[in-house]
Amino acid sequence: MNLAVGRLTLLVGGLVCGAALLTAGAASAEQQAIKGIVSGAMIQKVGFRAMIQKQAIMYNLAGYARNIPDGTVSISLQGDKNRIDKVLDAIRAGTKKSSQDNKVSVTDDALDPSLKTFKVVQWTSTTRNITNPYDLVFQLRPADDEISKKDASAAWNTIAESTLKGDDLAKFMKHLDADD
User: Fold this and answer.
1) What domain count does the chain have?
2) Which of 60, 67, 83, 102 is catalytic?
């Protein structure tokens, strides 16, 4: 009898462990890391990287967006695969000020479990006359939820407000007041 109970316990324990491994595997299968290059007629000096960061904030994705001297934008995105796909669709579609139908060439990248930020590297603003470069850094939310576009924009404004200094901050705030 003890042998039968031992075997049953081992079998149930093995099933539970196996199910936990399958669940963990399924969760990690949904996670993705990509890097890529975006090209389009107008994707620099038009708020394009800020749009990408707002998308990353909305979908709680890590990575970066960086202007390249050849006129392209280098991107990295890490997180839920479906959310990354939504951001890539938004990048391709562009914004009112940027070109639309942008080309995005991506390759898979290694997942970095320690990466918990999305950074716009050396952000400046032509419309606000902000020429000093700033790294705008979004810290991933502990709750891996999606937020609205409006909430993502508000979060982005908070990041900019806490990063910019002196006259640049004043220019940014004046531009915000003009938007209201």
Assistant:
1) 1
2) 67
Domain-embedded: residue 25: no
Rounded Cα–Cα distance for residues 87 and 82 (Å): 9
Provide, for the chain, the percentages of residues in helix, strand and coil under a 3-state DSSP scheme, each rounded to the nearest 5: 45, 25, 25
Domain-located, residue 23: no
Q: Whole domain around residue 112: which residue ranges?
A: 30-179
What Rg do the C-alpha atoms of the chain give, in angstroms?
A: 21
Indicate which residue of 2, 7, 49, 129 is catalytic. Answer: 49
Q: What percent of the chain has pLDDT over 90?
A: 73
* 107 domain residue, yes or no: yes
Residues 64 and 52: their CA atoms lie apart, in Å, by 9
63 has which bridge partners? 77, 118
- Is residue 141 among the annotated active site residues? no
Domain membership flag for residue 164? yes
Residue 82 designated active-site: no
Residue 132's CATH number:
3.30.70.100
Structure tokens belonging to residue 8: 């049953």
DSSP assignment of 75-101 equals EEEEEEHHHHHHHHHHHHH--SSS-SS
Beta strand pairing call for 117-125 and 62-67: parallel
DSSP state at residue 52: H
Confidence of residue 166 (pLDDT cuts 50, 70, 90): very high
- Regarding pTM above 0.85, the answer is no
